[in-house]
């Protein structure tokens, strides 16, 4: 058996876990670990420019691949800089292992240089965390960390390692455990067959059924199972912001996204349905609008791997806890064997007629006055990107209006193509997340749809992109304002634009070029398609496309709040249902 | 409604702060809390009381169960159970109250565990209501100091919270 130091054991354990990339930044407490990294070639280390970037890169890598992202940071400021990214991953249930250095054991608790209680600071935003007490525990702790991060409802796990536990002079016998079991943690559950039977009965008796699916379908690798079930039933379906790609976005059965900025047809179908099948979704406040007015006539079936998500905000009539994919498959099998009991075909086709009427409203039609012919609406930007990439790109986004436009105007036919911070809404997520996705899929087109506000929150990573030659395409929908903030100020504060104007913007083209990238600025609508064609033909270059868009545009539809239900929507400026 | 929740959790540093942190983070209240290792030193048993409606206690138990270090959990108030609390109380006694305090302690089956010329320290066990009642029964202004353990409980019958 090999004798290794704590630092070498950590790196060996990561290798044995099959880790390809570690996103990190060095510092005093992790110097032994960096030395161990230096002596090997299996794991590639990506040197970021800010630890927040490292966490979002690991996160983007995890969202694109389904595998656990890995971060390495030093103690104190390195650790605290990682917190926003850990919280982002936590809110969206993304598997991530964050290794943080800690001051030497004997200094803990003495306010020593670069000491932060990382276990304490991260506690509310991790699935679990470990403080290494004995160096010899490192292999087992790493095994447990990956197991916990990736199983059940996934999430970030912090492993805090005091510097003395990685000392190169203290050697231990290394053995990586083949498996782990924790008596207090048993994430795999099979859905209850009796509940599944009941759910199928309810679905088959439905007159106005609706399927609503969320990020759990993506995380649970069950887009296929969901698509099969939805096709078998012939029911309408909507996805949450986190669930886009869980069902093909260009399919006729798909009504678009639901919720705060959901489509007219999806939100109306939710409100009026009589049976709701919720899959891997958590009824959060951006979906339900006023909970007491939510789906007033519906019986609700709720499938989720996390029992705590069920009946948290909205009570489920038929809860089913367990692995979403297996449950969907069992439901499909049960339905197929139940041919005797037919669906209410006529009533359901009436329901579809109603849905088609809602669809006729064409709520996403871009409204443009004759004077605005050459003005680029942000929606035009997204639509053009969709056309030029034929809908096949990985698309990350930041947070704001551009995020909603991307979600609404770029339909995704596959899971894991749409990558955004839905739960925490972290500006600055888009570029580093795109980098993680691009590293995972070097040959694929990766687009970051962003705004001039958000991109400046992690713009330093343009430097990392040069170092590792990541040919991301950055689409900056530049409205010279914190558009989403401004929209709320327009709608709720009589247009008082308190600090939502972005002054002193850099010349983004020159900025990108100073890092060795290419930059383009687009100012008129007729240039949009041809320039984007050129941009996306530059396969091995990062290109920053600064698109000057209409600063006055709002995102619609938008749920009326407070005291609105899901059918209460603003459809354009001053026009509501 | 007042609930008594008993939790078996890994006897590891950090486990307790995670559980307490969860209550703070999600806005659940804790009325009383007691924790100590069990006969199996790798496990701690924690008992807490909280005020919660049906929906809230459902969320609390689910969220606590989700913590990786929580091995088992039971809401004792759901079924038949015994509960006890221990109190140590120091009571000032001037000469004309001395007999009176001792008599009240006897009625409540309290034990005097420390005697000073002008004070008693009394140990009392029972339900929280009994302890409250005892405190009320003592002469006004006689209480110098109170230490209560918080509630402990076990379910009645054969059910047991164990691994
Ligand atoms: C880190 C962070 N700070 C503040 C916010 C609040 N916020 C949400 S959207 C938004 C404006 C974003 O502006 P921009 O990136 O230009 O996007 P736009 O809405 O203009 O498309 C702000 C400030 C946030 N989501 N994240
Ligand atoms: Mg903007």
SSE inventory with pairings:
The complex is a heterodimer of chains A (about 575) and B (about 160).
Chain A: E1 3-5, H1 6-16, E2 21-24, H2 31-38, E3 44-47, H3 51-65, E4 69-73, H4 77-81, H5 83-91, E5 96-102, H6 118-122, E6 128-131, H7 138-150, E7 156-162, E8 171-173, H8 193-204, E9 209-213, H9 215-219, H10 223-233, E10 237-239, E11 254-257, H11 264-272, E12 275-279, H12 285-288, E13 299-304, E14 318-321, H13 324-337, H14 345-360, H15 378-388, E15 394-397, H16 401-409, E16 418-419, H17 430-440, E17 446-450, H18 461-468, E18 473-478, H19 483-492, H20 508-514, E19 518-522, H21 525-537, E20 543-548, E21 558-559, E22 569-572, E23 575-576
Parallel strand pairs in A: 2-3, 2-4, 4-5, 5-7, 6-7, 9-10, 9-12, 10-11, 12-13, 13-14, 15-16, 15-17, 17-18, 18-20, 19-20
Antiparallel strand pairs in A: 1-8, 21-22, 22-23
Helix pairs in contact in A: 1-2, 1-7, 3-5, 3-17, 8-13, 10-13, 11-14, 15-16, 15-21
Chain B: E1 2-10, H1 15-25, E2 32-37, E3 43-51, H2 54-66, E4 70-75, E5 81-92, H3 98-107, E6 111-116, E7 119-126, H4 128-137, E8 143-155
Antiparallel strand pairs in B: 1-3, 1-4, 2-3, 5-7, 5-8, 6-7
Spell out the key features of this protein.
heterodimer, A: 577 residues, alpha/beta, six-stranded parallel β-sheet, 21 helices, 17% strand, B: 163 residues, alpha+beta, four-stranded antiparallel β-sheet, 42% strand, binds thiamine diphosphate, binds magnesium ion
* Largest interface pair: A-B, 19 and 20 residues
Bound molecules: thiamine diphosphate, magnesium ion
* Secondary-structure element order of chain B, N to C: EHEEHEEHEEHE
The overall strand count of chain B is 8
Q: If helices are DSSP runs of H or I spanning 4 or more residues, what is the number of helices of chain B?
A: 4
Gap from first CA to last CA of chain A: 71 Å
Average residue-wise pLDDT of chain A: 97
Please list the strands of the largest sheet of chain A in the order they lie side by side.
3-2-4-5-7-6
């Amino acid at each position: 058996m090999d004798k290794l130091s704590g630092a070498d054991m950590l790196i060996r354990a990561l290798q044995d876990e099959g880790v390809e990339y570690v996103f990190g930044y060095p510092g005093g407490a992790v110097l032994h670990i960096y030395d161990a990294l230096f002596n090997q070639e299996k794991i590639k280390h990506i040197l970021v420019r800010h630890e927040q970037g490292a966490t979002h890169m690991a996160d983007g890598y995890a969202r694109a691949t389904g595998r656990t992202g890995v971060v390495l940071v030093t103690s104190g400021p390195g650790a605290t800089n990682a917190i926003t990214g850990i919280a982002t991953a936590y809110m969206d249930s993304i598997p991530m292992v964050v290794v943080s250095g800690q001051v030497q054991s004997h200094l803990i608790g003495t306010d020593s240089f670069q000491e932060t209680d990382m276990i304490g600071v991260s506690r509310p935003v991790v699935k679990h965390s470990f403080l290494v007490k004995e160096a010899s525990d490192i292999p087992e702790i790493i095994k447990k960390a990956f197991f916990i991060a990736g199983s059940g409802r996934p999430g970030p796990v912090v492993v805090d390692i005091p510097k003395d536990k990685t000392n190169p002079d203290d050697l231990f016998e290394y053995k990586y455990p083949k498996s782990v079991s924790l008596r207090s943690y048993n994430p795999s559950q099979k859905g209850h067959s009796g509940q599944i039977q009941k759910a199928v009965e309810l679905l088959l008796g439905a007159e106005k059924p609706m399927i609503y699916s969320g990020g759990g379908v993506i995380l649970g690798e069950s887009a296929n199972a969901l698509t099969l079930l939805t096709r078998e039933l012939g029911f309408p379906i909507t996805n949450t912001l986190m669930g886009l790609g869980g069902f093909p976005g260009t399919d006729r059965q798909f009504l678009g996204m639901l919720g705060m900025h959901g489509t007219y047809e999806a939100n109306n179908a939710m409100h009026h349905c009589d049976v709701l099948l919720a899959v891997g979704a958590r009824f959060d406040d951006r979906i339900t609008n006023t909970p007491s007015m939510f789906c007033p006539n519906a019986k609700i079936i709720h499938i989720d791997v996390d029992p705590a998500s069920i009946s948290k905000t909205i009570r489920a009539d038929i809860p089913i806890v367990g692995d979403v994919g297996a449950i969907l498959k069992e439901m499909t099998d049960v339905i197929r064997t139940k041919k005797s009991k037919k669906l209410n075909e006529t009533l359901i086709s009436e329901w579809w007629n109603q849905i088609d009427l809602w669809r006729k409203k064409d709520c996403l039609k871009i409204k443009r006055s004759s004077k605005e012919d050459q003005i680029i609406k942000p929606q035009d930007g997204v639509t053009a990107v969709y056309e030029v990439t034929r809908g096949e790109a990985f698309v990350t986004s930041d947070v704001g209006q551009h995020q909603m436009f991307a979600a609404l105007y770029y339909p995704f036919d596959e899971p894991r193509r749409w990558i955004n911070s839905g739960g925490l809404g972290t500006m600055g997520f888009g570029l580093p997340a795109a980098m993680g996705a691009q590293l995972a899929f070097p040959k694929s087109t990766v687009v970051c749809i962003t705004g001039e506000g958000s991109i400046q929150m992690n713009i330093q990573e343009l430097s990392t992109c040069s170092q590792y030659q990541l040919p991301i395409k950055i689409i900056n929908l530049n409205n010279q304002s914190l558009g989403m903030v401004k929209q709320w100020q327009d709608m709720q504060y009589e247009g008082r634009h308190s600090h939502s104007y972005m002054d002193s913007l850099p010349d983004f083209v020159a900025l990108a070029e100073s890092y060795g990238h290419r930059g383009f600025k687009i100012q008129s609508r007729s240039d949009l398609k041809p320039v984007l064609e050129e941009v996306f033909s530059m396969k091995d270059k990062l290109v920053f496309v600064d698109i000057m868009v209409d600063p006055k545009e709002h995102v619609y539809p938008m749920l009326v709040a407070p005291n609105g239900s899901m059918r209460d929507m603003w459809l354009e400026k001053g026009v509501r249902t | 409604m007042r609930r008594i929740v008993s939790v078996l959790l890994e006897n590891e540093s950090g486990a307790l702060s995670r559980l307490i942190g969860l209550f703070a983070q999600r806005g659940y209240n804790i009325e009383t809390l007691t924790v100590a290792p069990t006969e199996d030193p790798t496990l701690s048993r924690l008992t807490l009381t909280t005020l919660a409606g049906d929906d809230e206690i459902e969320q609390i138990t689910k969220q606590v169960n989700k913590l990786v270090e929580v091995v088992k959990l039971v809401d004792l108030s759901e079924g038949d159970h015994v509960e006890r609390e221990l109190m140590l109380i120091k009571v000032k006694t001037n000469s004309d109250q001395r007999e009176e305090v001792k008599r009240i302690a006897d009625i409540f089956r309290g034990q005097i565990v420390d005697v000073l010329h002008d004070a008693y320290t009394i140990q009392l066990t029972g339900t929280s209501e009994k302890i409250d009642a005892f405190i009320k029964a003592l002469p006004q202004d006689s209480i110098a100091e109170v230490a209560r353990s918080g509630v402990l409980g076990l379910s009645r019958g054969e059910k047991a919270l164990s691994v």
